[in-house]
Design brief:
Number of strands: 0
Distance between the termini: 71 Å
Number of helices: 4
Number of domains: 2
Strand content: under 5%
Structural class: mainly alpha
Helix content: over 70%
Radius of gyration: 27 Å
Oligomer: single chain
Order of helices and strands: HHHH
Largest sheet: none
């Protein structure tokens, strides 16, 4: 159980680092376009996608290593995944019943607001 939580923690760190790396790459690309650095020879004769991708990938890797080696972070995510395993999820039948109740209540509220709106509209038309 402990190792499964640890695997999920490491996977979540990897996904988070990849998403942040991609967002940083998009940011760097916008800055490069703004500074007109999109030519063929940006750095060491390499085009921008290679340079920006390398920079953001290295920063993403550094972020992953920092997250995965920090004891407090890994303990916290292990506890989160452990608590998620304790959650009792509703069955399909319970979910359908709850959805039906909420839908009916929303329809009742909408009809009540419609009636109140019509009453107020008639009242203000009478005043005007």
């Amino acid at each position: 159980m402990e190792t499964e939580s640890r695997k999920l923690s490491i996977l979540s760190f990897l996904i988070l680092s990849a998403l942040c790396s991609y967002a940083f790459y998009l940011f760097l690309t916008e800055v490069a376009n703004w500074l007109k650095l999109g030519g063929a020879n940006v750095l060491f004769g390499q085009p921008w996608p290679v340079v920006g991708g390398t920079i953001s990938s290295v920063l993403g890797l550094i972020g992953f290593l920092i997250l995965s080696t920090n004891q407090k972070t890994t303990e916290f995510t292990d506890e989160v995944f452990g608590e998620l395993k304790k959650v009792t999820w509703p069955t399909g039948k319970e979910t359908a019943a709850s959805t039906l109740v909420v839908s009916v209540m929303v329809i009742i509220a909408a009809v009540m607001f419609l009636i109140m709106d019509l009453i107020w509209k008639a009242f203000f038309e009478f005043l005007i």
